[in-house]
Amino acid sequence: MGEPLGLTVEEAAIAIHEVQNAQAGDLLRRAVVQAGYDPRDFVAYAFGGAGPAHCAGYCQDLGVSEVVVPLGPVASAFSAYGLAASDIVMSAELSDPSSFPVAPPVLAAHFARLEADLRQALDRQKVTFHDVTLQREIDLRYSMQVTELATPVPDAEFTERTGEEILERFEEQYERINGSGAGYREAGVQAITYRVRAKAGLGFPVRLPTVPRADGPDPAEALIGERAVCLDSQTGFVPTPVYEYARLRAGHTLVGPAVVDVPTTVVVVPAGATGHVDHLGNLVLRYQ
């Protein structure tokens, strides 16, 4: 791949790494901004096999100053861990395109039907749930538009005021995403899909593993060697300490550049950043 471009193997690998970081950053920025938020206001969770290896590249570009690599060796299987430990979540939908607001009896009938369907579906799980919460929402859009916004519906008896309250919530969301003054109720609003989400607790606590406390912040006991590592094309290869995750303890602090070897991934701590191990074994990266 590098030869036609006049690049060495190392230079081609660095370029691939940086392109992948840029693409990941663009996807993350788009998802957050389209939801009406600023990436700089958030802490990033970098899990999976690739997340810990690439988060240093794309999070700095996004202006994210703190990243959590969750639960150390569980990082690469964090989605599976969450699947096993999370509450049961189900949803039921009903499509009934119409102008909005609609009459309160119509709202009541739609949501009563959806909630009954959900409770029957939960009963079929044959699980005793700790508690069940229901959340109502309607997908709304302005007339002649093709994209809807899932808009929360009050959990109360439906009255003539309910439709106006839902419209206000829709317009608030719309302007948060598209900018102040972007809404135009005079164009008309359409309701497309009615939805109820159910969250059912499994009734048992999630017990997260903890790691022993270190005597001090120096992670020397976890140091397993040093190797030449290239973290970006500007600095090239530099001697970089390598730590073994299993030897890190709560309170240890790594100063970048550093690499943490985990059985199923690798965590990159770039120059100018620090990595702090908390009591759960999370590695918390902070960028200057």
UniProtKB/TrEMBL annotation:
GO terms for biological process: glutathione metabolic process. This is N-methylhydantoinase A. It holds the Pfam family Hydant_A_C. GO terms for molecular function: 5-oxoprolinase (ATP-hydrolyzing) activity. One of its GO terms (cellular component) is cytosol. It comes from Actinacidiphila yanglinensis. Residues 107-279 form the Acetophenone carboxylase-like C-terminal domain. It comes from the Bacteria. Residues 2-89 form the Hydantoinase A/oxoprolinase domain.
